[in-house]
Write a structure and sequence with these properties.
- The complex is a heterodimer.
- Chain A is 0% helix and 48% strand.
- In chain A, strands 2, 4, 5, 6, 9, 10 and 11 form a seven-stranded mixed β-sheet that branches. Chain A has a four-stranded antiparallel β-sheet with strand order 1-3-8-7, with no helix packed on it.
- Chain A is built from no helices and eleven strands.
- The radius of gyration of chain A is 13 Å and the shape is globular.
- By secondary structure, chain B is mostly beta strands.
- Chain B is built from no helices and eleven strands.
- Classes of the chains: A mainly beta, B mainly beta.
- Chains A and B meet through strand 5 and strand 9 of A and strand 5 and strand 9 of B.
């Protein structure tokens, strides 16, 4: 079974630029999550989708971050404009249903904002 | 706010030694999970503990959930270099539908 796929794996941008990350969850997984992991910290949930609907985006900085999962399969997370403090690893995870259940994480995209 | 405090933050040991890492909170959780994350990879689930006082074993790893379901420990016997990684504990936020709260993790380095 293929795991959660993410791209790109690494991205370096200058502050105020825009960036987008892509995630393809495990086939058949209805729930998709985006987490932000700042160096030295554990992952923090940004947004949770159930199929193509948003379940929880309470911790998403909506003035600069946006995410979509239009067809209920893959998803994109966008940052516009980026700030220095956005430097982090952005992890995508998926699960068959919503919690409590087993989530599978992708390898992440490491973003460096200079 | 539900917080998970992990200790120690860093741990460097020699191969063959035993170690214990801790995950503590003032909140009660219905379940708690332990993950291991290697550099450049996402976290991988090791175990979920559900019942207060529960002990689960995974080869050389022993996980315990506190009686009051507020804390947990992970004990590794005879550590190997392959155990090196970031160990994260996590629990679902109260009333959430999937919001996992993570501790900051314990970064373990096992030297040959």
């Amino acid at each position: 079974e293929a795991g959660v796929a993410q791209s790109p794996r690494y991205k370096i941008i200058e502050k105020r630029q825009s960036v987008a990350f892509w995630c393809n969850p495990i086939s058949g997984h209805a729930t998709l999550y985006w987490y932000q992991q700042i160096l030295g910290q554990g992952p923090k949930l940004l947004i949770q989708f159930q199929n193509n609907g948003v379940v929880d985006d309470s911790q998403l900085p909506k003035d600069r971050f946006s995410a979509e999962r239009l067809k209920g399969v893959d998803s994109t997370l966008k940052i516009q404009p980026a700030k220095l403090e956005d430097s982090a690893v952005y992890l995508c995870a998926s699960s068959l249903t919503s919690a409590p259940t087993l989530s599978y994480f992708g390898p992440g995209t490491r973003l460096t904002v200079t | 706010t539900q917080l998970l405090e992990q200790s120690p933050q860093f741990l460097s040991i020699q191969e063959g030694e035993n170690l214990t890492v801790y995950c503590n909170s003032s909140s009660v959780f219905s379940s708690l999970q332990w993950y291991r994350q290697e550099p450049g990879e996402g976290p991988v689930l090791l175990v979920t503990v559900v019942t207060g006082g529960e002990v689960k074993k995974l080869k050389r790893l022993t996980f315990q959930f506190g009686d009051a379901r507020k804390d947990s420990s992970l004990h590794i016997t005879a550590a190997q270099t392959g155990d090196t990684g970031l160990y994260l504990c996590a629990a679902y936020a109260k009333g959430s539908q999937g919001n996992l709260i993570f501790g900051k993790g314990t970064k373990l380095s096992v030297k040959p």
